[in-house]
TrEMBL record:
Name assigned to this protein: Tetratricopeptide repeat protein
Organism superkingdom: Bacteria
Organism: Horticoccus luteus
Any Pfam family the entry gives: TPR_4
SUPFAM superfamilies noted in UniProt: TPR-like
UniProt cross-references to InterPro entries, sorted A to Z: TPR-4, TPR-like_helical_dom_sf
GO molecular function, one term: identical protein binding
Length: 106
């Protein structure tokens, strides 16, 4: 049985402009522990939709796992701005906590 990432990879191959397929592929890759492969798909989602909070959250968290806090900070801050504007209280609180936990130099 094919993995979820294989399923979504096929959909992305057929429709590379579809951000929802890319986001689903990125989520599947993250769930399979393949964050490095998820990164470009999350970046594309962020680039194509300025109002989409979730790819920024996932990419920011991934960059923290990859020990790239300086890169993560800007994405998490952007996601926080979106969370507040869109009135998503729980993600806003989580994002604020993540940002507060970053070292000052990040």
């Amino acid at each position: 049985m094919p993995t979820r990432s294989a399923h979504f990879a096929g959909l992305v191959a057929a429709q590379p402009q579809n951000e929802l397929f890319r986001f689903s592929l990125a989520q599947a890759l993250l769930n399979e522990g393949r964050g490095a492969e998820a990164e470009p798909h999350l970046r594309i989602c962020c680039e194509r939709r300025a109002d989409w909070m979730m790819p920024r959250i996932l990419l920011g968290k991934l960059l923290l796992q990859l020990d790239r806090p300086a890169e993560a900070r800007s994405l998490l801050a952007a996601a926080l701005t979106l969370a507040l504007a869109q009135e998503h209280e729980d993600p806003a609180a989580e994002l604020q906590a993540l940002l507060d936990g970053l070292p000052p130099s990040a």
